[in-house]
Amino acid sequence: MQTVTVMHSRRFDRAVILTRHAALRMVERQVTEAQLLSVIDTGETKYKDETHLWAYKQLPERTDNLICAVLVLDQAVVVKTIMHNFDLEA
User: Fold this and answer.
1) CA dihedral in degrees (73, 76, 77, 79; nearest 10)?
2) What is the CATH number of domain 3-83?
3) How far apart (Å, rounded) are the C-alpha atoms in residues 57 and 40?
4) Which among 58, 52, 45, 46 is positioned nearest to 77, based on CA atoms?
5) How much of the chain exceeds pLDDT 70, in percent?
6) In whole angstroms, what is the distance from residue 59 CA to residue 74 CA?
7) What CA–CA distance (Å, rounded) separates 19 from 56?
8) What is the pLDDT of residues 44-76, one digit of tens each?
9) Whole-model pTM?
């Protein structure tokens, strides 16, 4: 699986790596790197376990809220996918 390091997370103090799937979803959903980093670093979080979580945030400049990044915490923050119109209860 091809990955690309594009930024650094202050919250988790490690590199952020996008899977190919996440990079494609980012383009498809027109989520910028700045928006993604905002979601990761300042969004709300919900942990599935110690290393798997969702980071999500409403972005006022977007009409398709919530934006959510599915993350795995490893030596880097691995972004598995990016969702929009996210429903925390679903």
Assistant:
1) -110
2) 3.30.2310
3) 9
4) 52
5) 92
6) 26
7) 18
8) 999 999 999 999 999 988 888 789 999 999 999
9) 0.90
Which of 83, 84, 72 minimizes the C-alpha distance to 15?
72
C-alpha distance from residue 72 to each of 12, 55, 59, 61 (Å): 11, 11, 22, 27
pLDDT in tens, 14-25: 999 999 999 999
With tokens 């795995």, the residue in question is 72
**Strand pairing of 14-19 and 3-9?**
antiparallel
Report how far residue 5's alpha carbon sits from residue 42's, in angstroms, rounded to the nearest whole number.
Answer: 19
pLDDT of residue 63: 87
The Cα-based distances of 79 to 26, 60, 61, 63, 64 in angstroms read 10, 22, 22, 22, 19
